[in-house]
From TrEMBL:
<protein>
    <recommendedName>
        <fullName>CHAD domain-containing protein</fullName>
    </recommendedName>
</protein>
<dbReference type="InterPro" id="IPR023577">
    <property type="entry name" value="CYTH_domain"/>
</dbReference>
<dbReference type="Pfam" id="PF05235">
    <property type="entry name" value="CHAD"/>
</dbReference>
<dbReference type="InterPro" id="IPR007899">
    <property type="entry name" value="CHAD_dom"/>
</dbReference>
<dbReference type="Pfam" id="PF01928">
    <property type="entry name" value="CYTH"/>
</dbReference>
<feature type="domain" description="CHAD">
    <location>
        <begin position="216"/>
        <end position="484"/>
    </location>
</feature>
<dbReference type="InterPro" id="IPR033469">
    <property type="entry name" value="CYTH-like_dom_sf"/>
</dbReference>
<dbReference type="InterPro" id="IPR038186">
    <property type="entry name" value="CHAD_dom_sf"/>
</dbReference>
<feature type="domain" description="CYTH">
    <location>
        <begin position="1"/>
        <end position="200"/>
    </location>
</feature>
């Protein structure tokens, strides 16, 4: 009913060695020819559902796949077809309650006709391995996805947990990553097919998803749920960047997801021993490498229109002064992939402790942040630049941690508090952007005197936003009370 699998792309420089080594293991070869169907309006795709008919050697099998609450676990239902299908419909699912429910929620009507969308032609090499107490199937796929006269290559390996523990699956995979530089790819063949069909260069951007906690959850369980939620936010954006099919929004959301992870680890560090000390440091390094790319993107989107409105003679960012990091390579690096898998394994571990614990312990961290922000409000205009940046980071961290725990409190109270935080975070964020802009344009005046106008505008805007931020901080401190 459910499958747990991790898919990886094999970089071109490793393919010959991978294929040579894999064939030595004497895998079984299968020919897989699949046809993917959807409604005319592509309602299945909109709900992340895939419906295919696949010829596996000499046997036709119809498969329905749909997402579950777990990032790498999918609902899967297979039917063996007695004869080559002339068409595809939903008849097989009318008496299967889970499948019918999924399709009803997505479509409403199971009589909607289906249309062929695209096809795949794959040579699959399969072998099964035992690792500790788990059975793991390794599938090496070589082939292509086709739509009319267009095609994209498939060259990837999937590790599926047939039985056992996810932690053992990940432990089994790690040496493969080290040897062949495999990088994690969350895209299904269905998703890649739709991208080909629609001519999309970049993949959909993933925003953060709702997080549901329970009052009975132990501290360790809460942390694992938060990490799983942050990873579900990060994975699709990391895949887009690694595949070099990304835009500035993917970079922004990847940074937000990483910042949320770092915020979670910080608030939990005093109440749990489950966090590996190197994780926050590794996340910080990735965050910083994404930073320069995101900073320029953000300034291009926000600063340039403001400069144009102000009549600036210079309406473009200065050229890069140094070589920029290859962020696609960053998410393909073995160290990054290994970190992500460690976090995934941690997020899915069962909590064995029977000791009672309460989320109220975490509220002490919220109270501390709230108090620190209120203290900063008393003399914000007198603070040095680094202290002001610290205030901004506290506000962000407070927001993320409130969002993590919001399902444990009355919705109205949470919304009121977050509503008070939002304008404060925006003012402090815009204020910080101006310092980034100043660092970018100040060295440029030697090459282009028009940059003096920009620096003058930045200086005036800094004064205005500093006063605005101080006022909003004061309003927050005086009018906003903790709800926890």
């Amino acid at each position: 009913m459910a499958e747990i699998e991790l898919k990886f792309q094999i970089p071109s420089q490793s393919r010959a060695q991978f294929e040579q080594d894999f064939q030595k293991l004497q895998p079984t070869r299968h020919r897989l020819c699949a046809r993917y169907f959807d409604t005319e309006a592509q309602q299945l795709q909109q709900n992340q559902i895939a419906l295919r008919q696949r010829l596996e050697d000499q046997q036709w099998i119809q498969t329905l796949k749909a997402p579950t609450e777990q990032q790498f676990e999918r609902f899967e239902l297979e039917h063996t077809l007695k004869s080559p299908p002339a068409s595809c419909d939903f008849q097989l699912y009318r008496k299967h309650k889970p499948a019918k429910k999924i399709l009803k929620q997505a479509l409403g009507d199971l009589d909607i006709p289906l249309i062929l969308q695209f096809e795949t032609d794959v040579a699959r090499y399969v072998l099964t391995e035992t690792h500790q107490n788990s059975q793991i199937e390794i599938a090496f796929d070589v082939g292509e996805i086709r739509h009319k006269d267009q095609a994209i290559d498939i060259y990837e390996v999937e590790f599926e947990l047939k039985s056992g523990q996810l932690s053992e699956l990940i432990d089994f995979i790690r040496p493969w990553i080290q040897r062949y530089d495999l990088w994690l790819d969350t895209r299904s063949k269905s998703e890649r097919g739709y991208a080909l069909l629609q001519g999309e260069e970049s993949l959909p951007v993933q925003h953060q998803l709702p997080l549901e906690l329970e009052q009975k959850d132990q501290i360790a369980t809460i942390l694992k749920k938060i990490v799983a939620n942050c990873l579900a936010h990060l994975f699709p954006n990391a895949t887009a960047i690694a595949a070099d099919h990304y835009n500035s929004d993917h970079v922004h959301q990847a940074r937000v997801a990483i910042r949320r992870l770092r915020s979670a680890f910080k608030i939990f560090q005093s109440v749990t021993e489950h966090v590996q000390p190197e994780w926050p440091e590794q996340l910080r390094d990735i965050f910083q490498q994404l930073g320069s790319t995101r900073d320029r993107d953000a300034l291009a989107e926000s600063l340039i229109p403001q400069l144009e409105k102000a009549g600036s003679p210079l309406l473009k960012l200065p050229p890069h002064r140094q070589k920029q990091p290859d962020i696609s390579a960053l998410f393909r690096q073995t160290a990054t992939v290994d970190l992500i898998l460690q976090l995934l394994s941690f997020s899915q571990e069962k909590t064995h402790s029977k000791a009672k614990s309460s989320h109220k312990i975490l509220c002490k961290g919220l109270s501390k942040l709230h108090q620190q922000i209120c203290q900063d409000a008393e003399n914000y205009q007198e603070l040095d630049i680094e202290s002001r940046h610290r205030t901004r980071k506290r506000v962000k961290r407070l927001r993320y941690n409130v969002e993590f725990l919001q399902s444990l409190f009355p919705e109205k109270d949470v919304k009121t508090y977050l509503k008070a935080l939002k304008p404060l975070q925006e003012s402090l964020g815009h204020y910080n952007d101006l310092f980034v802009a100043d660092e970018l344009f100040r060295p440029y005046v030697k090459q282009n005197s028009k940059a003096w106008f920009v620096l003058g505008w930045i200086s005036a805007e800094q004064q205005r936003l500093s006063s605005e931020a101080a006022e909003r901080l004061q309003q927050f401190a005086e009018n906003t009370k903790p709800f926890w």
